[in-house]
């Protein structure tokens, strides 16, 4: 005897409804288990019965999956920081190429209108910008290290350095991103 298509409608008889709920709940959990194992995914299913009893299924564990959804893990934060680092590196490379092209163009000109003081100030600002980028790079490397205590200590030191650098007027670059060079 094969399976037959059952019309989807509300089951009036409460005993039959509870029995159907129990069978279908187990079927849903079985399908969720198959999906989790076949596709190597984490899954969480929550079903509340007509008598308001919650039933849960999770692979590998319901609470772990729900916790992961509610609180993104350190590894996902690390991945996003690493992605940001890659973007900064790409931006630096683009900036270096643009600077090289500008330098080549400026070398072709015979008259240079910049004063020595302007060049010295420009160099100091570039060095401050480079130091800031190096600190950001160190911070991202520290996030990937297992020692949380040393990371917190370094973060505090970097904040102190940054705030003291700001009070001296060293940091004038305000934004990062492709196409935006900031003000020097």
TrEMBL record:
Q: Which PROSITE patterns match?
A: MADS_BOX_2
Q: Does the keyword rRNA-binding apply?
A: no
Q: Does the keyword Transferase apply?
A: no
Record keywords: Coiled coil, DNA-binding, Nucleus, Transcription, Transcription regulation
List GO molecular-function terms, semicolon-separated.
DNA-binding transcription factor activity; DNA-binding transcription factor activity, RNA polymerase II-specific; protein dimerization activity; RNA polymerase II cis-regulatory region sequence-specific DNA binding
Assign the protein's first listed, main location to one coarse class.
nucleus
Q: Where in or outside the cell?
A: Nucleus
GO terms, biological process: positive regulation of transcription by RNA polymerase II; regulation of transcription by RNA polymerase II
What the entry lists under InterPro entries is as follows: MADS-box/MEF2_TF, MEF2-like_N, TF_MADSbox, TF_MADSbox_sf
Question: What does the record list as coiled-coil region(s)?
Answer: 78-108
* GO cellular component labels: nucleus
- Boundaries of each MADS-box domain copy? 1-61
Concerning SMART domains, the annotation shows: MADS
> Could you identify this protein by its name?
AGAMOUS-like 102
Q: What organism does the record attribute this protein to?
A: Arabidopsis thaliana
């Amino acid at each position: 005897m094969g399976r037959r298509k059952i019309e989807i409608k509300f089951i009036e008889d409460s005993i039959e409804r509870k029995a159907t709920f129990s069978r279908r709940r187990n079927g849903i959990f079985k399908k969720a288990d198959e999906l989790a194992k076949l596709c190597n995914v984490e899954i969480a299913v929550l079903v509340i019965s007509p008598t308001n009893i919650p039933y849960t299924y999770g692979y590998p564990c319901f609470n772990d999956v729900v916790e992961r959804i509610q609180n993104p893990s350190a590894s996902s934060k690390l991945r996003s920081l690493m992605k940001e680092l890659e973007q900064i590196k790409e931006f630096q490379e683009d900036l270096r190429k643009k600077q090289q092209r500008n330098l080549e163009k400026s070398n072709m000109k015979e008259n240079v209108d910049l004063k020595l003081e302007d060049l010295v100030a420009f160099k100091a600002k570039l060095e401050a910008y480079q130091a800031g980028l190096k600190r950001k790079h160190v911070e991202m490397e520290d996030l990937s290290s297992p020692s949380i205590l040393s990371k917190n200590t370094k973060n505090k030191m970097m904040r102190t350095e940054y705030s003291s650098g700001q009070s001296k007027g060293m940091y004038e670059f305000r934004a990062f991103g492709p196409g935006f060079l900031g003000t020097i």
